């Protein structure tokens, strides 16, 4: 479709661009004490964007001369990103860390990240892959270092910028080889060219794919490209940590699924088409290995942490590993499992970070010591945190269990060569039980049993409930999510 | 000098220097210079493939885009490094490390 025609299908992004520009101008007109209003402006704008996305739910087409696609798969991830951003924005307005700073730019940058993620989930072109990764990364660098006076936040920004620029540079070098081998930047043409490629090019192709994996791995914080994660997650404002742990990860998984499904498989994993072209490359083995290392390292290092925020950073690495487990299968079931897992992970992980923010607003600390006796002092937060921790472990009857169940089920359906992944995933879940339940133990069994009961501020309490309730309900009744994901499993496929 | 391989070789050498620079340098600015070398190595690849590989103009477009994004990234990175210098009086990546493993 030509550029001009595409615009009529591009209205969610156009509304979002309008909201971002509006937020910049609005921020100029109000003074610092009222800069939180920009946040409400962004939230209202994002709701309008979500509505616009729902309107075009079943359209399947390419836009802007084959640069990006519009399909239900992309719409699903767009809605997920918008939902995460709305939840994080509301909490950002309550965060004590940000209260000394002007918040206008903060929300504007969040809006720009959402735009970048929209491109990321719908890209079918290498140029757009690099552009979207950079839009998201550059804005994240600024947001991670947003607390200008706080040296830990500065440090988070510096580490992020160094690792981010390095990994995306290596990815770009890989992209240049893929372009050289196939003569195109378009996924469909690349897939066609790879299928007809001489076997002598395989070494170069594997090298280029591994270089691309560096970029993807950095975005989903998979080991061994995870070095930035603990420091950035610990130093960045907690609201941004919560955002980074879900939205860019969802975007990167969408991009990764599209890339592997479209370029290295035959794009027809959904329709049950012949997937013979997968066999050219051992990328299923590469991905399995990556998933196993990611999970294991994330869980084992999380055991030794004393800072809850840092522990959750390693836990998010482990969860990226669980989702990566389903990637090597690359069947309809496995993509379905990853999407369900992301929905569940959104609620439980955001909820855990919201509790960290609420506790930090009250006690100013985020280590295990600050959580002693918290369950008796703030029962609501204690119970909510227990739910999130049980769910992150993956125990029934919570959302985390459903997510893990679908991942492991897709592996078992995938065939005998994936059974060992299920075993290692199961062992890892058991290991993670220790550090998740340690939080619960510290909250209820250690420290003084307080006589007075404190309630968190109303909006914080509402936001924690807004994540805790779905975490429980989706563990018992997940049919709406399953249906939604099922309806979103349509890719745009073009055969040349 | 009309050979694709020559250009690819130059790009590969530049890329290696860039990776080496990022890995060994401790100074924030020097690390950024390493990253720039990597990006420019990729640019040489793109343009060379486009010119000598008998391909379309996508490579040229990609290279132009990378130049723009590299500038944006450098601007943000330098701003962060200046801020670190103001607060900690160092731009050494090892020294600016208060969070433990």
Question: What's the gist of this structure?
Answer:
The complex is a heterodimer of chains A (496) and B (101). With 496 residues, chain A is an all-alpha fold.
Word description of this protein:
The complex is a heterodimer of chains A (496) and B (101). Chain A has 496 residues and is an all-alpha fold. Chain A has helices at 3-6, 11-29, 37-55, 72-94, 104-122, 126-144, 151-182, 187-195, 202-220, 228-235, 238-264, 283-302, 308-325, 332-363, 374-377, 379-393, 399-414, 419-445, 458-476, 479-487; strands spanning 61-63, 68-70. In chain A, strand 1 and strand 2 form a beta hairpin. Chain A has a two-stranded antiparallel sheet with strand order 1-2. Chain A has a domain at 290-491. With 101 residues, chain B is mainly alpha-helical. Chain B has a single domain, classed as Helix Hairpins (Orthogonal Bundle), CATH 1.10.287.3510. Chain B is built from three helices and no strands. The model of chain B has no long low-confidence stretch (mean pLDDT 90). The chains are: A mainly alpha (496), B mainly alpha (101).
Query: Biggest β-sheet of chain B: count, sense, barrel?
Result: none
Mean pLDDT of chain B: 90
Largest interface, Cβ cutoff 8 Å = A-B, 40 and 46 residues
Number of strands of chain B: 0
Give the helix level of chain B as a range of percent: over 70%
Rg of chain B is 17 Å
What's the arrangement of secondary structure elements?
The complex is a heterodimer of chains A (496) and B (101).
Chain A: H1 3-6, H2 11-29, H3 37-55, E1 61-63, E2 68-70, H4 72-94, H5 104-122, H6 126-144, H7 151-182, H8 187-195, H9 202-220, H10 228-235, H11 238-264, H12 283-302, H13 308-325, H14 332-363, H15 374-377, H16 379-393, H17 399-414, H18 419-445, H19 458-476, H20 479-487
Antiparallel strand pairs in A: 1-2
Chain B: H1 4-24, H2 28-52, H3 58-88
Helix pairs in contact in B: 1-2, 2-3
């Amino acid at each position: 479709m030509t550029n001009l025609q595409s615009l009529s299908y591009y209205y969610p992004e156009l509304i979002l661009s309008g909201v971002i520009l509006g937020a910049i101008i609005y921020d100029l007109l109000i003074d610092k004490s009222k800069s939180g209003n920009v946040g409400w402006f962004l939230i209202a704008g994002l709701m309008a964007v979500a509505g616009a996305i729902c309107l075009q739910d079943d359209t399947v087409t390419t836009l802007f001369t084959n640069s990006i696609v519009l399909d239900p798969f992309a719409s699903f991830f767009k809605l997920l990103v918008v939902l995460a951003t709305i939840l994080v924005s509301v909490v950002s307005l309550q965060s004590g860390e940000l209260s000394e700073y002007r918040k206008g730019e903060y929300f504007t940058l969040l809006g720009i990240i959402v735009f970048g993620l929209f491109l990321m989930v719908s890209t079918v072109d290498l140029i757009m892959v690099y552009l979207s990764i950079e839009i998201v990364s550059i804005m994240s660098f600024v947001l991670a270092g947003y607390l200008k006076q706080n040296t830990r936040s500065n440090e988070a920004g510096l580490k992020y910028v160094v690792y981010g620029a390095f990994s995306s540079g290596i990815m770009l070098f890989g992209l240049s080889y893929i372009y050289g081998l196939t003569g195109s930047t378009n996924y469909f043409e690349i897939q066609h060219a790879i299928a007809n490629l001489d076997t002598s090019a395989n070494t170069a192709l594997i090298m280029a794919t591994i270089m691309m994996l560096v970029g993807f791995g950095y975005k989903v914080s998979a080991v061994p490209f995870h070095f930035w994660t603990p420091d950035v997650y610990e130093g960045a404002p907690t609201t941004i940590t919560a955002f980074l742990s879900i939205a860019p990860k969802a975007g990167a998984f969408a991009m990764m699924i599209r890339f592997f499904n479209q370029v290295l498989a035959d794009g027809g994993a959904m329709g049950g088409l012949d997937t013979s072209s997968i066999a050219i490359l051992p990328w299923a083995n590469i991905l399995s290995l990556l998933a196993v290392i990611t999970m294991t390292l994330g869980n084992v290092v999380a055991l030794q942490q004393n800072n809850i925020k840092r522990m959750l950073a390693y836990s998010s690495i482990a969860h990226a590993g669980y989702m990566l487990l389903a990637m090597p299968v690359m069947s309809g079931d496995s993509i379905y499992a990853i999407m369900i897992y992301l929905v569940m992970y959104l609620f439980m992980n955001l909820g855990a970070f919201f509790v960290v923010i609420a506790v930090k607003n009250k006690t100013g600390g985020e280590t295990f010591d600050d959580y002693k006796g918290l369950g008796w002092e703030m029962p609501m937060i204690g119970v909510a945190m227990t739910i999130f921790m049980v769910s992150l472990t993956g125990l029934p009857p919570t959302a985390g269990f459903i997510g893990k169940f679908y991942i492991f089920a897709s592996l078992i359906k995938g065939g005998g060569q994936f059974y060992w992944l299920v075993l290692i995933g199961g062992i890892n879940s058991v290991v993670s039980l220790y550090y998740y339940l340690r939080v619960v133990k510290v909250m209820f069994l250690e420290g003084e049993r307080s006589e007075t009961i404190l309630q968190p501020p109303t909006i914080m309490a509402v936001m924690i409930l807004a994540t805790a309730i779905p975490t429980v309900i989706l563990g018992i009744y997940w049919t709406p999510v399953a249906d939604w994901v099922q309806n979103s499993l349509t890719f745009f496929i073009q055969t040349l | 000098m009309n050979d694709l391989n020559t250009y690819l070789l130059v790009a590969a050498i530049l890329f290696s220097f860039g990776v080496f620079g990022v890995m060994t340098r401790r100074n924030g600015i020097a690390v950024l210079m390493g990253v720039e070398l990597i990006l420019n190595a990729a640019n040489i690849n793109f343009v060379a493939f486009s010119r000598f590989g008998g391909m379309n103009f996508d490579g040229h477009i990609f290279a132009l885009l990378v130049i723009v994004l590299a500038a944006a990234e450098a601007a943000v990175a330098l701003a962060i490094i200046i801020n670190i210098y103001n607060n900690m009086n160092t731009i050494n990546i090892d020294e600016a490390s208060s969070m433990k493993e």
